[in-house]
Backbone:
């Protein structure tokens, strides 16, 4: 990740695990909501592709809603 500090966003790790078939039991939507609150508090965008774009399943849900 360009500009990263060596840390990886929690939502990125959870998404990776879920995509690999490793069930985490973690609500990624809740993590995304918490990250958005943190962005607002800090007044800057966090470097998280999953936060910006969402997960693959979230993409498919948005496409389904458009049909």
Residues:
């Amino acid at each position: 990740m360009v500009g990263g500090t060596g840390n990886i966003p929690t939502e990125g790790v959870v998404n990776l695990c879920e995509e690999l078939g490793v069930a985490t039991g973690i609500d990624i939507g809740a993590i995304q909501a918490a990250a958005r609150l943190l962005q607002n508090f800090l007044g800057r965008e966090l470097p998280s592709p999953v936060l910006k774009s969402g997960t693959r399943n979230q993409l498919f849900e948005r496409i389904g809603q458009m049909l």
Remarks:
- The chain has a mean pLDDT of 89.
- Residues 28-42 form the longest helix (15 residues).
- The chain has four helices and no strands.
- The CA atoms of residues 12 and 49 lie 7 Å apart.
